[in-house]
Amino acid sequence: MRSTIHAKEVKVWDPLLRLFHWTLLGSFCAAWFSEDELFESVQDRLSGEYLQEVHVWAGYAIAALLLFRLLWGFVGPRYARFRDFVHRPGETLAYLKAVLAWRAPRHLGHNPAGGAMIIVLLLSLSVTVVSGLALYAADKGLGPLAGLLVAASDGTIDAIKGTHELATHFTLLLVVGHLIGVVWESLLHRENLVRAMITGRKRA
């Protein structure tokens, strides 16, 4: 029975892509929950410094993961490559209309809407990371951009902080939208997409 089940499945998501996916999720959660303003009531100075360290290193981890995903989008296996899931805007809109009508075709890899979400997420995360590094440099005088922004004015710091917060909140909205899309597609095609991203296998 087990061999019959596996015969009906094919490998889609490679191990490195799956590791990237779950590590990125964990890093974003660590960065979000260690953000200073979420813990303003914490009186212990050591706790505050520890949370900041977690936030900074989570940001570095996200930066490294984004660089890996950029590379993997060109040299990785078929379903990890950008050319497999990046579609023209018209195709993406047509797919979204089909999804809402509950008649969207199934894709073994990322569907056009999922591909568009990935690109927007990667861009949003990139803005979040770069603005975070800029804020770390301008406000604390630390990080790889410290030499450029250590003498930044208060107005510049406020502008960078606003950009970082806006990008972070936008990324969070995208994550929520991604989760809704995963649930919707799972119900539409009667397929557990979360399980697929864990095992790497999907129904043939």
TrEMBL record:
Residues 12-200 form the Cytochrome b561 bacterial/Ni-hydrogenase domain. The chain crosses the membrane at residues 12-34, 54-75, 113-138, 166-188. It is a multi-pass membrane protein. The keyword Glycoprotein does not apply. Pfam families: Ni_hydr_CYTB. InterPro entries: Cyt_b561_bac/Ni-Hgenase, Di-haem_cyt_TM, Hydrogenase_cytochrome, Ni-dep_Hydgase_cyt-B. Keywords: Cell membrane, Electron transport, Heme, Iron, Membrane, Metal-binding, Transmembrane, Transmembrane helix, Transport. Its main location: membrane. The keyword Transmembrane applies. It is found in: Cell membrane. Belongs to the HupC/HyaC/HydC family. This is Cytochrome B.
